[in-house]
Amino acid sequence: MKRISLPLLFLLMLSSACSNNDKVDLTHVTFNFNHNWDGTAVTNTDFNAIKFTNAYGNQLSIERLRYLISKITFHKSDGKIIVLEGYNLVDVTNNENLSFMPSTFVTTGEYSNISFTFGFNNEDNMNNYTDLNTASWIVPDMLGGGYHYMQFDGKFLNDANKEQGFNYHAIRAVDNPGENPSFPQDTFIVVNLGPTTITSNATFNIEMNIAEWFKTPNTWNLNELNQALMPNSAAQIMMNENGQNVFSLESVNQ
């Protein structure tokens, strides 16, 4: 029988131990998107009725709400990141895509932050997405092209106490609509959910407080800002500012 020297045996045992310690577990993650109005749950069964009041005091209804989530990213403390493939068009109106499981696996362990992008960043916004084209999600070329970040439509009671429509649509802020539009400021939003440790299949429960779109730091008066907001770069920048506190991480189930 062939003998193995003690030093060699030690090296083999050490190699085996390191191999076991470096074992990587892969798992899927799921993101659930829930909605509320300052803490009161909102679903599509609450739509099409004047039942909400924004921070300015406008009474309003929600008739359509859908928005895009992309570039879900897991950040390690050493700077390494895992960017999950795909994007998700959350359609609250039709109760579709409220749950999203990216095809990319992540490794278990500690993460210093999990983030996602509301809308597309500028690079991704220039790509062509067949499903989003079919979903009427395109922004006209005269407004810079690309895609919406959000379509939020409803009615409100105006100063004459009559119902009037509003279209709170978020896109990339644009000036000089036409053949040569310009972009004064990025208006996609990177949402940071904070640190977490993943031990197995994890479900992230994300909350959107719809009321925040009208609240902080810009108190939104629908009598003044209700339609034609897409070519209004100042309005788009205000939406971006208000959107900084719209999303939060409610819980992580594992």
From TrEMBL:
Q: Where is the Copper-binding protein MbnP-like domain?
A: 28-226
- Signal sequence annotation: 1-19
Organism domain of life = Bacteria
Q: Which UniProt keywords apply?
A: Signal
Q: What is this protein called?
A: Copper-binding protein MbnP-like domain-containing protein
